[in-house]
Amino acid sequence: MTAAPRLAWRQARGAWRHFVLLAACVALGVAALVAVGSFATTLDRTLAREAKALTGGDLELRAARPLDGDSAAALADLRARGAVIVGVRELVAMARGADGRALLVEAKAPDAGYPLYGRLQLAPAEPLPALLANDGAVVQRETLERLGLRPGDRLALGRATFTVRGIVEREPDRAASLVTLGPRVFIAGDALERTGLVQIGSRVRYRVLVRLPERLAARDTREALARRIADPGIRVASYDEAQPGLRRFFSQLATYLGLVGLASLLVGGIGVASSVATFVRRQAPTIAILKALGADSRTLLATFLWQTLTVGAVASVVGAGLGAALQPVLIRLLAGFVPFALEARVEPLTLARGVLMGVLTTLLCAMWPLLAVRDVRPSLILRRDVDAVPARGRRPWAAALPTAMGLAALALWQAGSLKLGGIFLGAALAALVTLWALARGLVGAARRLPRAPWPAWRHGIGSLRRPGGQSARVVVALGAGVMLLVAVALLHEALDAQIDHERHREAPSFFFVDVQPDQREAFARVLAQAAGDDVTPTLTPIVRARLAAVNGVRVTRDLVRRRVGEDREGAFYYTREYALTWSAAPPPGNVLTRGRWWGPEPGPPRISVEEAMAKQLGVDVGGHLTFDVQGVPVEAEVASLRKVDWQSLGTNFFVVFSPGALDGAPVTFVATARTTAAAEGAVQSAVAAAFPNVTAIPVRDVLERVGAVLGDIAVAIRVMALFTVATGVVVMAGALTATRYQRLYESVVLRTLGATRGVVARAFAVEYACLGAAAGVGGTALACLLAWIVLRFVLDTPWHLEPWALLAGVVASVGLAIAVGFLATWRLLGEKPLPVLRRE
Asked: How far from 68 is each of 199, 225, 234, CA to CA, in Å?
């Protein structure tokens, strides 16, 4: 056993309180990282294991139109080679109960053989074909609850009526969207035709699920199909590409949660540095004695580094265990987004990664204060009565460079992206500098403020500038936690305001889809009778089409691959089904950015294109787009580009045609109307009963579903942000402990001079409140800036100042600082002055 570890062990036995605070700082940060990392790894493994069930087969073909032509021929060849093929049609429709109540549902009509993979859990546990036979239906429990039905009751869907024969407990391949429009209703494939819901212009999603024989590889077969099917509007995916949107959502969420956890570890690093600096300062006489006995600085530095790293390693292991124990909490918060059960599992690599990050953070944050060991002189043991505190030595700033680079490398490692890691580092550095400057400003202001007439205030403010005070560390640590919590609150409030239907007085209460041309007058009468004579719907003509060519170049799968590669967002503009309309004037809320609107005179077909779409397609004013309208090509010149406010909750379009350009095309109408909240149920029921083909989408209900998803995400982020707050509390407790003797001496001197315990307690409270207020003001200011940046540049959402959130952040910070301060120092008020003064 070498000298440094042996000396470290002996010297550490009397310093356990110092090591407890250091360990708590590291353990909390590691716990946050391991909890998020374990959840992400568990989810990724589960998604990989359930990939075929999520897709519905080895392969999935998805389109907005029936698959015919080359796609049908390709599927026939696969069937001849032994593949099992099942078709599924999905659409949104209105379900009606016997009492006339209506509900927006997502109807699904699978062919025989569904599901190919996974398990469709039904109650009763009978085969799906048996339950759907003879006009049967199985529904989610929410359908029964909201329509007041029970198994055996009748349910109307379009022009057909079904008997509810079961309840869907779990559906394996329903996770394409985090927000659903309504509960699921299963009916037989042949029964869908009798509902009358499938018409020209109806929004039906056609899916074909394929189970391949073992000799055919999914990826190779998928590539062969993609080459054979030229239409890019038909998405061909293999099971290992299952639910890309869901995977991307969880990957990004795990990354952001991980960065919040990293913030708590970095705040813990401040506590490590503070704790080590305090320990070295207290051990200065011991260091001087050891140097006088012949110990060199390198041995002593190795001794204290050995101590610190050992404590950091043990704390990291404890934190990893705590993080693994917290994994089920995140699973309960976020498991509602996936259609299968998530089981908490201990991932050794994730635990090892968390422990390694904890140890590295301890090492990097402890090195700088440990360099002070070299500056303690042996003569201090002889001059301790006149130099009670050794002068701060000159530590070379070059020694700080490895620490900064190491912490930056950890941030980049955790972020997994240079861009995201760089943004995190920039934001962290800006927050650190801002809070540090605020703390220094607070100390400077305490020096310059006039003397207060009240003893408690005078002494409390004066204590902010005491020698060896750690105001900067307290303000930085607490301010970081306040910043994260307040930023989450501001973002959540801003998004809630954006989806709050009552705040958008111009927003419609309903979108009515698939209103036929001959139903317009009757539809308006039914709506007026149900909602009131003053409610008049706004009807907008819709023609559904596919993009066929861009500037004369035919849109094919190869073209999309060449232009956008694997960018699914870019491919969206080439492959989606467009809802086209025409208008003589620019739509309300749209702003022309290039070109001009057409005049009243007739002319060739012209279009106005949304600017983001034009950028992705590479077209400008004067370019041409060709659309396939039910097999008929319609080419038009781009006359203008528009900026569209997609968050207006109104009827917006990517492409608007000039009047007359779409004459003769099959048209339906989308209607919007705003009603009172009390009339929404009656309107929905009346329209569903009179027009079974019309789908009424209640905006309020959809926004509430979106709000529920955002609420779950916000709770998960708040849970992780609480780790940063807890770490800040530990740092503050450590800072107060570091000055415990000074506070004790001040307390007994004041009481000897006649101050009561109440006066001393109020003086301490003033000091703690000032620190908390500085942290609160700095944290909330940074939170406002962070929330504004995210809303403005990431979410493109208006920013609204929320005074209550800012006030709550400051008040909570002050209250927390006072509470922690008293818990750390209240025992000092009970010390008798005489023994303390005699020790001096």
From this structure: 17, 14, 11
Q: How far apart are CA 767 and CA 457, in angstroms?
A: 8
Determine which of 546-550, 559-563, 582-586 has the lowest per-residue pLDDT on average.
559-563
Residue 758 has pLDDT above 70, yes or no: no
Cα separation, 355 vs 358, in Å, equals: 5
Q: Give the per-residue pLDDT at 456.
A: 61
Q: What is the pLDDT of residue 389?
A: 47
Q: Which two tokens stand for residue 395?
A: 């530590």
Q: Which residue has the tokens 């703390």?
A: 439
- Give me the percent of the chain exceeding a pLDDT of 90: 4
Q: Chain centroid to CA 614: how far?
A: 29
User: Between the CA of residue 256 and those of 37, 39, 262, 347, what are the distances in Å?
Assistant: 11, 13, 10, 20
pTM of this prediction?
A: 0.71
CA dist 779 and 464 (Å) reads 19
Strands 136-140 and 160-170: parallel
Angular region, 112: left φ>0, alpha ψ -120 to 50, beta rest: beta
Distance CA 186, CA 659 (A): 41
Q: What is the DSSP letter of 335?
A: G
Q: Are 827 and 757 in contact (CB under 8 A)?
A: no
Residues near 456 by beta carbon (within 8 Å), at least 6 away in sequence: 759, 762, 763, 765, 766
Q: Give the end-to-end CA distance of the chain in Å, rounded to a whole number.
A: 40
Residues in the chain: 840
Q: Considering Cα of 457, then 461, then 466, then 469, what sign does the dihedral take?
A: positive
Quickly state the pLDDT bin for 345 (edges 50, 70, 90): confident
DSSP per-residue letters across 416-481: -SHHHHHHHHHHHHHHHHHHHHHHHHHHHHHHHSPPPSSHHHHHHHHGGG-TT--HHHHHHHHHHH
Are the C-beta atoms of residues 345 and 38 closer than 8 Å to each other?
A: yes
DSSP 521-553: HHHHHHHHHHH-TT--PEEEEEEEEEEEEETTE
* Structure-block tokens of residue 42: 């568990």
Look at residue 590 in the predicted model and tell me its pLDDT.
85
> At 125, which amino acid appears?
A
Distance CA 142, CA 140 (A): 5
Confidence of residue 489 (pLDDT cuts 50, 70, 90): confident
Distance CA 235, CA 61 (A): 6
pLDDT at 189: 85
CB 475 within 8 A of CB 774: yes
pLDDT at 657: 92
> pLDDT digit string (tens) for 146-184?
888 888 888 988 888 899 998 988 888 775 455 677 888
Tell me the two tokens of residue 719: 């849970």
Question: Per-residue b/e over 637-647, b at no fewer than 16 CB within 10 Å?
Answer: bbbbbbebeee
State yes or no: pLDDT of 504 exceeds 80: no
Interval 360-405: pLDDT, tens: 888 887 777 777 777 667 665 555 554 544 444 455 566 667 777 8
- Nearest CA to 322 out of 122, 679, 24, 4 is that of 24
What whole-number distance in Å separates Cα of residue 342 and Cα of residue 336? 10
